[in-house]
Amino acid sequence: MAITVLWICSGLVLDAPRALAAVRSSTPSMQILISGKPEPPKKPSGLIITGPASSVSGSRSGGAGGLLGVGSSTGGSGLLSSSSGSLARADGSEQPMMDPLAKPRPRYDLAPSSGRPDELVFGAASCAAPGLMGEWGAHLRDQGISRVLALCNAAEAEASQAALCTEAGFAASAVTVVDIRAGGAKAATIEAARAAVAARERIAVVDTVGGAHTALVLAQYLHDDYVGGDGGTHSCLEVCELLTARKRHSGVAWVARPEDLQRFLAEGTL
Hints:
Layout: E1 4-8, H1 16-26, E2 31-35, E3 47-49, E4 86-89, E5 94-96, E6 111-112, E7 121-123, H2 133-142, E8 145-151, H3 154-167, E9 175-178, H4 185-198, E10 202-207, H5 212-227, H6 233-245, H7 247-250, H8 258-267
Helix pairs in contact: 4-5, 5-6, 5-8, 6-8
């Protein structure tokens, strides 16, 4: 009597000829049916680390270059190419990728604008709660900050000056308030930074718009004092990339747009 055996393989490589020979030599009358239908690939779960295609090399799929082709998000498994540098979940949602080597974010985002050991120009977050201005000012002074360059609009200037002096505890002569959208803003901001450097005193640049204007003035200072150049596209791009790269060492993500910096340097206002 013939016996039929159905052997199902789930995606494994099977040495079928050797298996058949072994079985037939011991049981000549047995008929073997081998089905090697693989299981369909499982959908990825959890987080898939994605980033620029240039960050991972040596992987190809089909005839396209890069990871599944540059910018591709179709089919297959493994790393998906993304130009945003993010964590992509299986459902397609993304969240910013954390740099495991970056320093922790400092209190009040207080950090130097460059990696020079004697850097005197710092950036910091403004104090959002009026009742904490004293604590905010005390922390900055504990870190060696003796001057403040506050970036705000004309309507906020008087109140900001008063709060920095009476509540935060800085001397009136050490506080400079500038409306970055007013005429002469470029000259006023760089003059405040240069004066602090000349006096060998630390100055903190703060704003009331979440750090965008602080980043711009820090980029202006680095362009003037560190990178140099004519204020053209290439020098502005270099400065802004240098400032953004500081996040790993400072823990603070300052982002200034090269086109804003170029316009600010050329026109003297934002």
